[in-house]
Amino acid sequence: MGLAPHPPGRSSEKAIPMSINRLALLSLLACTAAAGPAHADARIEVVFDDPGSSWTAYYADIQRITVAAGNAWVDSFQSTASGAALTVKIGFDNIATANGRSATSAWTGHSSGGIALYQQGAAHELLTGLDPNGAAADIEVNLGIAGYLQGELWFDPAPALRLADVPLDRTDAMSVLLHEFGHALGFNGWRNGVTGALPGAYQSTFDALVYPAPSGPGLVFNGSRALGLYGQALPLTWGNYGHLGNAQESDDLLPDLMNGVAFYRGTRYAISTLDLAILSDLGLPMLAAAQPLLLSAVPEPAAAALWLGGLALLALRRRRPGPTALKGASTCAR
Ligand SMILES: [Ca+2]
Ligand SMILES: [Ca+2]
User: Fold this and answer.
1) Distance 104 CA to ligand 2 centre (A)
2) Which of 24, 81, 133, 207 gets the highest tally of CB atoms within 10 A of its CB?
3) Closest ligand relative to 324 C-alpha
4) CA–CA separation, 184 vs 1, rounded Å?
5) How far is the CA of 167 from the centre of ligand 1 (A)?
């Protein structure tokens, strides 16, 4: 997903009401990328699914950003298995923004109740060094070519440093790729986004920690580390529960990289301590997950202009890979 040039209050897929003025008053999560030297040595590789070679002019930009985003996540692991290499296949689709996922998932056992438990394939390879789908790409990211790639995304010239100003009329592609890697590593599942029902006797590691909200509609994530940081179970985006927060009632989560409501133009999003805590709850050895959650107002440059004029909503498209051993895999088909 990514920021789309839509009028405030609407997204291209989910109509999620929100108040821009209210949003401007929020305390923002201080999203902190893991700092320090790399602790893991997994490689990020990029391939392009572009049969007509229509988008070659963007290859260098996309590759640079994708590798930097992948490295930022890999560096957030305490360690990764020797030889792990994540191959990211970049596709080009006639969609409003972008989407991403692991190409497959890996069976990791059974939950209580006998429900089969699956880990995102990319996370499984980082942990075990075993590639669940062999030579096939591990992560699939699709970029919208209805203007999103051409006129909306901004490609940071030095995405590992992130020092240049993000143009106020553009979406930071590094933020978008970081977000899609988040889905590929853990923020994904098969539950019904409204009822929370599982489609069968299988679930993702994320699904296993998702429950109906204790009061009111919606779903929450209640992994222990995330709960410890946030103080309560995390509200998930209504109807699109692989994301955090809602425009109402849980708008304090909207500055998070993995929020499901909005990305602002001219704004950088980074891997947050909360994101790391969630992945730790999914069994991934993340750095910094034990750090306290920082809550402070951290407006991005020219925030006022962004609040009023730069808002665009995320297209909340999330593909649902099926378990490798189940027929649900057919839902992967484009
Ligand atoms: Ca691989
Ligand atoms: Ca593979």
Assistant:
1) 9
2) 207
3) 2
4) 12
5) 34
